[in-house]
# Entry
Amino acid sequence: MITDPIQTFNEWYEAACASKKIIDPTAMVIASGKRDGSVDARVVLLKKVTSRGFYFVSNYESSKARDFEANSHVAVVFHWDALEQQIRIRGQIQKASVEFSDTYFQSRSRDSQLGAWASAQSQPIATREVLIDAMESVRAQFEGQPVPRPPHWGGYCIEPDAIEFWRGQPNRLHDRHVYSRVDDTWEACRLSP
# Structure
């Protein structure tokens, strides 16, 4: 086994990106805990991987953001069925740097930038027209000028404590190995399927 799970992740991720069988290899399910002890999960899109962790972007006022504030422990699953691969990640989540958030925001299409201003994510709205009207209002507000990143929008980084790799094998004798962070190093262990 390779001793660096980020290297293994990158190898598997690159193969998933190269595969024509995977519609969106960046899609990951992230599960979070609420203040009352209940849990929730949703799909977000991976934007960056570094030795520090796994990055995605969101609205800082969304229901998931409230979950992250209540409980910083999260779990993530990448499932690439066509490749018979799954990666599970457990760790701590925190807001990414302002630099990451600004840089990523500026790489988005103008309409996506405007949408970040127009949408009060997870808040009830009477009709879809309310959202469309908000988008047109924001479009007029920023006409002819760059769209700044809203203060309520930015990146998150999941700093992993454990990363498990699963690969399907015949007769359900699947290949599983998990890496656990111990201080600044990783310990690897093979698991029975």
